[in-house]
Amino acid sequence: MRHAMEHADPAAADLDSALQGGPFHVALRAAIAARGLPLQRVQHHLSRRGVKVGVTSLSYWQQGARRPQRPESLRAVRALEEILQLPEESLIRLLAEADERAAAQRPAARSYRALLEASDVLGRLLAELESAPDGGLHTLAHHERVRIGARRELAARESHHIVRAHRDGVDRFVAVHHGDPGCAPDRMAVRALDNCRTGRVLWHRETGVLVAELLFDTRLRSGDTFLFRYGVEDGTAGVSREYARDFGLPGGQYALQVRFDGGTLPVRCHRFTQPSAAAPRSGRQDLALSGLNRSVHLVEPRVRSGIVGIGWDWE
User: Fold this and answer.
1) From CA 170, how far away is CA 219, in angstroms rounded?
2) Count of beta carbons in the 10 Å neighbourhood of residue 133
3) pLDDT digits (tens, 9 = 90+) for 191-245
4) Share of the chain residues as helix, strand and coil, in percent rounded to the nearest 5
5) In this predicted model, what pLDDT tens digit does every residue of 256-299 receive, in sequence order?
6) CA 22 – CA 32 distance, rounded (Å)
7) Is the peptide bond before 250 cis (omega within 30 degrees of 0)?
8) Which among 33, 29, 30, 58 is positioned nearest to 45, based on CA atoms?
9) pTM for the full model?
10) Mind listing the domains of the chain with CATH numbers?
């Protein structure tokens, strides 16, 4: 006599295991396979329930390349539990557990005290360079590109500035770089790329603050515009999870692009704003990662005082 277990459905066994231990994308993929539904049919069933989700999104979800987060996406997950004949809350529970793990693994953001200390250090370094708060320049546009390396570290950034002098005699710009916790500013390199050359470079290891003079080959008169470009090679800290720029004064356009190494991509990205270091973050908005360029970006047409940045989560 053959035992009943010999006739057990392997797909059903895989599904039971995935629903118990996850992760979400494995459970979803197993459920779709167990029901024998192509993604187009799954999308059709969702549409009949008034839930709009693209086949591409469903594919990303079951591959683990994206995770449902928006209210409409979570509504789709609850509908999937019904369509795929799963226990109620089974997929939602796996999503919640994944979010809890991600939160536990995410290091705490720099404390307000640490940010104040960095601000004090920056003030002392700028005073040593005899630099005014705005250096006699108004920023018309600042385009910044950040590169995240294969170790998930802040590998480098490049800045392209368009400025206008508001007094005579301006012949330099002081760049500020604030590395991730644990960085070594003494091992960073500042590169003058266009229309400038590197002058004095100062740093403070404990706070990760680095300042560098970028010297122009001309003295600007009030009203003159000037374009220059420089970069900072970093790569000295551990895993990076965000990049932010603190604007002490309002200014012109700011564009930030974060590009990731092709071998290690985040599971989700978002932009955020913060009126000051002491204020809570707000203005969170999910950003779609470009598969071709492996990057996300934000554009602020006119910068206000405060902090703006991009954050991301690793699996």
Assistant:
1) 5
2) 9
3) 999 999 999 999 998 889 999 999 999 999 999 999 999 999 999 999 999 999 9
4) 30, 35, 35
5) 999 999 888 999 999 999 887 777 888 889 999 877 789 999 99
6) 14
7) no
8) 58
9) 0.65
10) 4-105 (no CATH), 112-313 (2.60.40)
